[in-house]
Amino acid sequence: MTSYKKLGFVNTKEMFKKAMAGKYAVPAYNFNNMEQLQAIITACLETQSPVMLQVSSGARKYADQTLLKYMGKGAIEMMKVHAKEKGLKEIPIALHLDHGDTFELCKDCVDSGFSSVMIDGSHHSFEKNIELTKQIVEYAHQHDVTVEGELGVLAGIEDDVVAEKSTYTKPEEVFEFVEKTNVDSLAISIGTSHGANKFTPAQCTQNEDGIFIPPPLKFEILEEIEKKIPGFAIVLHGSSSVPIEAVKIINDNGGALKDSVGIPEEEIRNAAQSAVCKVNIDSDGRLWMTGAIRKIFNDKPAEFDPRKYLGPARDALIEMYKHKNKNVLGSAGQA
Ligand code: G3H
Ligand code: 13P
Ligand code: ZN
User: Is 56 in the pocket of ligand 1 (CB under 6 A)?
Assistant: First the structure.
């Protein structure tokens, strides 16, 4: 058993309390490799933002779960050294399991140093979701680890997160779910989804430049949910904006992304000022990273030193995370 406290992480209790009071959202950024992790820590330290480092099941398989844990620990140590060097305050960092799907996986993460876990029981019946979430909460809380549950299904396809159709969260279910499970935060479905194709062209309108404009998020559902569980921390998954600039860099350099549509940043900004205390962003980082690497490969076909293309990709990520913290989530200066 490794306690997250020994590794230097914090759970989400204090983070969400502050985010709720300050009307901003804590960024939850996924990482699978060193460059992504360096970029997240650098950007969050330099903008003085709290952060949740998210590890998915896919990341555990890709990067090795033991290595990821120690990379997380290394990130804490790096943050402390850089904070001292730059005369900055140390920032709170949580290590979070993204989309846990079984008790065993969540327990394994609690036992190996995660400070927060998500149990995504949204594909189960309401009753089964309550039962599974409650079981994990009971175990996690014994170790002071916080738990995120989910009600409502997000559409979208990534490695281990697959759903064809979304189902919005039913406001009438949230009070019972929260009360019966004793969960610490709740991910909801109000129209966001995973990946870079969040809406089909048929669901969108087009502006005069041919850009797809997606239908608005269901803020009325969020408001209903807030009324049912006032002051409770809400989480928004699938919150990438899929910037046209990043898609253009990819496609101008040999890529073939088609019909990519995300959630306008303005909508995420509005959500962050509500009871939404945590916002998950992964795809935007993938896009900027891919664009930077494709551009180097296109501009300098003789380049073969990974540092020469992963370095610029890391720089692009740093810029993006800083932008999100400062201009979208409002978490900059809140560490
Ligand atoms: O919500 C899913 C995250 O973006 C992680 O995706 O399962 O492909 O690592 P992944
Ligand atoms: P995006 O695919 O919109 O970045 O969502 C990421 C996410 O929800 C991770 O859990
Ligand atoms: Zn997600």
Answer: yes
What are the tokens at 230? 């006032």
Measure 226 CA to ligand 3 centroid, in angstroms.
Answer: 21
Tokens of 106: 């969540």
Locate the ligand 2 atom nearest the alpha carbon of residue 286 and give its number: 4
CA pair distance 268, 335, nearest whole angstrom = 20
**Closest ligand 1 atom, residue 160 Cα:** 7
> And the tokens for 245?
């600039």
Catalytic residue, candidates 98, 120, 282, 284: 98
Answer for the pair 192, 238: CB distance below 8 angstroms, yes or no.
yes
Contact 95, 59 (CB under 8 A): no
Instruction: Supply the pLDDT for residue 210.
Output: 87
Ligand 2 within 6 A of CB of 120: no
d(CA 177, CA 16): 19
Q: Measured from the CB, is residue 280 less than 6 Å from ligand 2?
A: yes
Q: How far apart are CA 286 and CA 147, in angstroms?
A: 26
Ligand nearest to the CA of 192: 2
User: What is the token pair recorded at 304?
Assistant: 């073969």
Gap between the Cα atoms of 248 and 211, Å rounded = 12
Percent of the chain with pLDDT over 90: 93
**299 catalytic, yes or no?**
no
Is the separation of the CB atoms in 120 and 99 below 8 Å? yes
Model confidence over 268-277: pLDDT tens digits?
999 999 999 9
* Backbone angles phi and psi of 3, in degrees to 5: -80, 140
3-state SS, residue 270: helix
Which are the contacts of 233, defined by CB distance < 8 A and separation ≥ 6? Answer: 12, 16, 19, 20, 184, 185, 186, 275, 277, 278
For residue range 247-267, list pLDDT tens digits in order.
999 999 999 999 999 999 999
